[in-house]
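Hi all, long-time lurker, first post. I run a small reading group and we've been trying to get comfortable going from sequence to structure in the token notation. Rather than ask abstract questions, I figured I'd post a concrete chain and ask someone more experienced to write out its structure so we can walk through it together at our next meeting. Sequence below, copied exactly:
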Amino acid sequence: QVQLRESGPGLVKPSQTLSLTCTVSGASTTTTNYAWSWIRQPPGKGLEWMGVITYDGSPWYNPSHKSRASISRNTSKNQLSLHLSSVTPEDTAVYFCARTTTTYYGGRYYFGHEYDYWGQGTQVTVSS
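-- Answer (accepted) --
Happy to help. Here is the structure in token form:
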């Protein structure tokens, strides 16, 4: 059974960097043709895709967040990380990690539009 579990600070002050971890069990983050996404949901709003890291460690970002977001992984711990710098109250949201599929073809990655496993989410509030 694949399980994802997000963890993080809960409360972050404006202008600081938010750091979240997603711990994966029951699957490897290096398994070919899978990718691992970070998705958030601000209060009262829909889901927003932040970015993804592929099975071979290539990160891709939502252009809206590319300048502030960084996604990485620790293969020895089977963990993913999201770092979001210079946070504002607008970054307040529930943050999720989720698994999707990916194919590398013709020099680029193609990502699936569905997610088969999600974490339970972690609430992050940006406030002074």
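A couple of things your group might point at:
The mean pLDDT is 96.
The first strand starts at residue 3 and ends at 7.
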